[in-house]
Automatic annotation (TrEMBL):
GO terms for molecular function: acyl-CoA dehydrogenase activity; flavin adenine dinucleotide binding. InterPro entries: Acyl-CoA_DH_C (IPR013107), Acyl-CoA_Oxase/DH_mid-dom_sf (IPR046373), AcylCo_DH-like_C (IPR036250), AcylCoA_DH/ox_N (IPR013786), AcylCoA_DH/ox_N_sf (IPR037069), AcylCoA_DH/oxidase_NM_dom_sf (IPR009100). Keywords: Oxidoreductase. Residues 234-364 form the Acyl-CoA dehydrogenase C-terminal domain. Residues 10-101 form the Acyl-CoA dehydrogenase/oxidase N-terminal domain. This is Alkylation response protein AidB-like acyl-CoA dehydrogenase. Gene3D superfamilies: Acyl-CoA dehydrogenase/oxidase, N-terminal domain, Butyryl-CoA Dehydrogenase, subunit A, domain 2, Butyryl-CoA Dehydrogenase, subunit A, domain 3.
């Protein structure tokens, strides 16, 4: 893979093609194979992979910028851009043997990951036997591996562990019949008493605290970064991108739209002008907030000081950015006329997609805002809080 500079620029150049394929992705309930190939060719999927395995070993800020560009073309494509890119970074947190297995043939893999611990893992000689069924397996339709979270015995305690399995050891259940984000193919996955060797599992606590086995063999600060802040912030990037795509379409539509009954040009109305300006300011502010939060996490990790307050702020920012994107999309779609509500309209598709993806638990505003408030006021966030 030849990376060079400008992965985000390459994805931006691809965005119009992604928009043209959005209907096909929605109807198929998975991304077109051509889209996967095109995204791979930009270098996106391997940009967080260690250089010694052929990756680019770039940073989260550039990754988020690229995924935001993908989201502007198609929200489902933007979301899977995050999934596939970030989960390659997560492979770099596993023991070195697992990394070598996954990246044996090329410097990236296509891997969904489900963090809800809805499975069980029984200790076995040299590893665990994993059983369970998990929902929301975004990206499983193109997967080569799958990651799932299961509860495992650890002495007298029970701990959540992340397990990495080849796709052929996982059953997929076709349940992804939704109103939005249909192109993600987020079907259920099931594992039935499959042995997973020890080198293909990591305790969730190690991932959450940035002290994973992979951080011992990959020395860059990138691999000491706590999981939840970067998952939340990079996940918000394509949601923001989808809203930016709607804003661009709204501006283009408004320039030429004439009201059917009055004959009034929409661009000459104060309402359209105010909506355009307000959305522009809101999304620009959200983008600056997102970029600042990502820079802050990266800097704090490099300095060895990514504390709870910094991590809680990442959750706060991600929820706020996603909420801003949802509000802007709904406002612009409501101002685009009844014809924007045809199911094949990019306005309608973006509205359904953004309203669906902002239901993700990581963007739930009450939880994210309360979490930041508790930590800022000196209270314990609780033992099971994602932070």
């Amino acid at each position: 893979m030849e990376y060079g500079d400008g992965i985000a620029r390459r994805v931006r150049d691809l965005a119009p093609t992604l928009a043209e394929r959005a209907r096909a992705a929605e109807e198929a309930r998975r991304l077109p194979d051509e889209t996967i190939a095109d995204l791979a060719a930009t270098g996106l999927f391997g940009m967080l992979v260690p250089e010694r395995f052929g990756g680019a070993e770039r940073g989260f800020e550039e990754m988020a910028a690229a995924c935001r560009e993908a989201g502007a073309g198609c929200a489902s494509t933007g979301w899977l851009s995050v999934i596939y890119t970030l989960h390659n970074w997560m492979v770099g947190l596993f023991p070195e043997r697992a990394q070598a297995e996954v990246w044996a043939d090329r410097p990236y893999a296509l891997i969904p990951c489900v963090l809800a611990p809805t499975g069980t893992a029984a200790p076995a000689d040299g590893g665990h036997r994993v059983t369970g069924r998990w929902s929301w397996g975004s990206g499983v339709m193109h997967a080569g591996y799958v990651m799932v979270m299961a509860l495992a015995a650890a002495g007298e305690a029970i701990e959540p562990r992340l397990f990495l399995l080849p796709r052929e050891e996982v059953a997929v259940h076709d349940v992804w019949h939704t109103s939005g984000m249909r192109g993600t193919g987020s079907n259920d996955v099931e594992v039935a008493d499959v042995f997973v060797p020890a080198h293909r599992s990591v305790p969730l606590a190690d991932l959450a605290e940035g002290r994973s086995p992979g951080s011992l063999v990959n020395p860059a600060a990138l691999y000491r970064t706590p999981l939840v802040p970067v998952f939340a912030l990079t996940g918000a990037a394509p949601v923001l991108g989808a809203a930016e795509g709607v804003l661009a379409r709204f501006a283009e539509r408004t320039r030429g739209r004439v009201a059917a009954y009055s004959g009034e040009r929409q661009r000459e109305t104060a309402g359209a002008q105010v909506r355009l300006a307000s959305a522009t300011a809101d999304l620009a502010a959200a983008r600056l907030l997102l970029e600042d939060a990502l820079r802050g996490v990266v800097r704090a990790v490099a300095e060895g000081n990514c504390d709870l307050r910094r991590r809680a702020r990442a959750r706060l920012v991600a929820a706020h950015v996603a909420g801003t994107a949802r509000r802007v999309v709904n406002d612009l779609c409501s101002a685009s006329g009844a014809s924007a509500q045809f199911t094949d309209s990019p306005f309608q598709r973006a509205q359904r997609d953004v309203n669906t993806i902002t239901g993700h638990v990581v963007f739930e505003p009450d939880a994210a805002y309360a979490l930041y408030g508790r930590i800022e006021l000196g209270l314990d966030p609780g033992p099971v809080t994602l932070v």
